[in-house]
Write a structure and sequence with these properties.
The chain has 236 residues and is an alpha/beta fold. Helix content is 44%, strand content 22%.
């Protein structure tokens, strides 16, 4: 059955073993991932699959489909073109991510986000020539939450625009107030760079702080070019 978009569901009845499910899943993936021909051209359509068992992984339709969906996302994160079976830790991770997203939405207004600074040193003269701004989050009850955990959530939820603009503004302000003559480096998320309003955020940070533009360096990961990079190229 087609669930919507490019998602489909397969319901197996009278399953005798987990191996039987895995065998059929691999057969389906083999067919779906095989290249086909359209108007004389070879076309590849990739497919990934998530598996949930009844009743081990749910007893209601919503619960089973939701857990199969979590397994599907795990398959995509593991490299696509494969299948994964739901495990309890996937549900725990999903709940953790939802909790982080909810708390992250108010973290800025509560002043829980802050910057730490890592010196950039000239290896020949051993003089500090600048500093890199590192985003950190101290939650009032959970303590330090790693950017490795909350930045991807910010990117997926769309919060990275607001947070990234704050980082730019705070970094430029700190550079003017506390780091005279030094260059500062700011990490820019690929998702942030693909926003239409990114240049406006940079311009506002420079104008509000009075920082000279040549004192700011942007660190941009090459993964920005793996997806649709048209807006990112314009911004660059």
């Amino acid at each position: 059955a087609r669930l919507g978009g490019d998602e489909f569901a397969v319901l197996l009845d009278d399953v005798r073993s987990d191996e039987e499910v895995q065998h059929l899943a691999q057969r389906l993936l083999g067919v779906l991932n095989a290249p086909g021909e359209v108007n004389g051209r070879t076309v590849s359509v990739g497919a990934s699959m998530g598996i949930a068992m009844i009743p081990e992984h749910g007893t209601s339709i919503d619960e089973v489909l939701g857990n199969a969906d979590l397994a599907l996302y795990a398959a995509k994160e593991a490299g696509r073109g494969r299948c994964e079976t739901f495990a309890a830790w996937l549900g725990e991770r999903s709940r953790r991510q939802m909790s982080i997203e909810q708390e992250l939405r108010v973290a800025l207004s509560r002043s829980e986000l802050y910057l730490e600074w890592q010196p950039i040193v000239d290896a020949q003269t051993w003089k500090v020539r600048g500093a890199e701004a590192l985003l950190r989050w101290w939650h009032p009850t959970s303590g330090a939450i790693s950017p490795v955990e909350f930045v991807p959530v910010a990117e997926k939820s769309g919060l990275i625009g607001e947070i990234g603009a704050w980082v730019l503004g705070e970094a430029c302000r700190t550079a003017v107030q506390s780091m005279p003559g030094l260059c500062i480096s700011v990490n820019v998320s690929p998702v942030q760079l693909m926003r239409v309003g990114f240049l406006d955020d940079v311009a506002k940070a420079l104008k509000d702080s009075g920082l000279a533009p040549q004192r700011v360096e942007m660190e941009i990961t090459e993964s920005v070019f793996l997806d649709d990079a048209s807006t990112a190229l314009v911004n660059l």
